[in-house]
Prior knowledge:
Layout: H1 21-39, H2 53-60, E1 78-81, E2 98-101, H3 103-110, H4 133-142, H5 152-159, E3 178-183, E4 188-193, H6 197-208, H7 215-234, H8 240-252, H9 261-270
Antiparallel strand pairs: 1-2, 3-4
Amino acid sequence: MIKLQRRRAAAHVPKRFQQPKLKVAAATLATIYYDAQTAGKFTFDSNAWKPAKGALKIDTGGKCAYCETSTEVVAHGDVEHFRPKSIYWWLAFVFDNYLFSCQICNQTYKGDRFPKAGAALAPPPMPPVLPTGPVLTTLLASLILDATQVADAQVAALWSAEDADLPHPYYEDPEALFVYEADDTNREVWLRSAGGARADRALAAVETVLGLNREELRRLRYAEYRPLVIINASLPHLTLSLRRDAITELRVQQGRTQPFAGMKRHYARAWGLPGPF
């Protein structure tokens, strides 16, 4: 995992998640809430968040925000609700609660699981029945979080008391939490804790909730790791021109769009080499 940047300019946030369409979304959400009081469950239409996918995919460079594998060839990827919509129903249409994920991390593993150390976020207070007039206007305003009108620090503060075990790659730097361990015998690379209580808790969460040490990922990481090892070992023996080219390639491989960039950045730091461009 690597740190992602939430682009908040109006040009980068889909219109569906800006005013005045957010007012319509809030009204839809209120209806869903009151219907659920009778039906016993929340029923959402996934078309509501599909417009977010393109912008989120750009943020990750076409990769899953969790496992860092590409979704360009074999899958379309999902708009993932970091805080599950089945539990955090009031965040179902909140752009800041979205990230781009592969179907395996999102559907096969994460689902509705969301471990945390703090108290669960409190939902907005809802009247017993759907109100009308000014009371409804006030209620709908409480269900709106416009990504173009807030900053990262504000959003992080809104959710910080919950102390989620999973690192949110837009609001916490995963590179500070994880290191990597190569197993040359089995041709695998494992994700490990960088040390400390927070990192240990984050590793346990990404292993159990996201499966980030599943066998196929360990082997895919190794396939990306070995060429870097060979290039690094070759550096002292290359001409100046070839050495520059090799270092440039190592920096390119650490870029946002590259698979397992977090792992590659870890080894570049360990080898004393420059980071990504």
